[in-house]
Amino acid sequence: MAMTQFRARALLLTPAGLWYAALLLLPLAVVLIFSFGERSAIGGYAPGFTLEQYANLPARFAAFRNTMTLAPLGTVASLLIAYPLAYFLAVRVSPKWKTMLLVLVIVPFWTSILIRSYAWIFLLGGKGIPALLAQIGLDDVRLLNTPFAVLVGIVYGYLPLMVFPIYVALEKLDKRLLEAAADLGTPPWRAFLQITLPLSMPGVLTGSMLVFILLMGEFLIPAILGGGKVFFVGNALVDLFLQSRNWAFGSAVAVALVVIMLITVALYTRAVKRFGASRDDVGLM
């Protein structure tokens, strides 16, 4: 009986396992192998075994610095905007308006991120917000092709991905806990800190990790709103693989990015367990 169950599970998991191996593990293995090679005389990859590519990683320090600075800032900024919005949608809005407002949050995803980013070029360019600021005496304000412009594009582009996990967590919140806290004389701000926020942390962590991981590989927004002056690791990879054709060094940069991702996921898992324990404690209260 046990052998039959094992075979059934293996049969069900085999297609997904082969798909996972072919589309994730195999490309990662190729990139890892390339990272220990060399650039050939005509570009591309030449077989070899050297750590020279990893030793040259500081040459792309600016790209890693920008990514590790703006990705967390973009995640935090998205969270600060998304949480009040998700709370309003989940707790304060009546059911008859909730669906329409949720659709409005999704609507930007119906348009290409490329078009939306180009719209911000006009808004942040000389004839947009800087022109309005000039009318009130703030001249020579430069917004486009700056880290601020990239941060604005990041928050605008990834905000829905932060809103929905938090909304789902808040939607599942047992309102009776808040009613009991109010009956016991707990102030609303303390009930939020002790009940609502801890119980919504799984959504906060999921949304934050989802946005952060995608931002680590972001290419389009820095390329358009950064104007070639604010490079992410994604921009560095495009340059190394498609322009300079240094596949070995590009692979080393990609491996370093994957390592950072793995460390982030490990910290994320640890945080989920910690807040899960806190959630259980709140539930026991």
UniProtKB/TrEMBL annotation:
SUPFAM superfamilies reported in the protein's UniProt record: MetI-like
Q: Sorted alphabetically, which Gene3D superfamilies does this protein's record hold? A: MetI-like
Biological process per Gene Ontology, one example term:
transmembrane transport
Q: Which keywords does the record carry?
A: Cell membrane, Membrane, Transmembrane, Transmembrane helix, Transport
> Looking at the keywords, is Transport present?
yes
Can you tell which superkingdom this protein's organism belongs to? Answer: Bacteria
Q: How does it sit in the membrane?
A: Multi-pass membrane protein
Which terms in the GO cellular component ontology are assigned?
plasma membrane
Q: Does the keyword Magnesium apply?
A: no
TM segment ranges: 12-36, 70-89, 101-123, 148-170, 204-227, 247-269
Q: Where in the cell is it found?
A: Cell membrane
Tell me the ranges covered by the ABC transmembrane type-1 domain, including all copies: 64-268
Protein family (similarity comment) = Belongs to the binding-protein-dependent transport system permease family. CysTW subfamily.
Q: Which PROSITE patterns match?
A: ABC_TM1
**What is the annotated signal peptide range for this record?**
none
InterPro entries the UniProt entry points to: MetI-like, MetI-like_sf
Q: List the protein's name.
A: ABC transporter permease
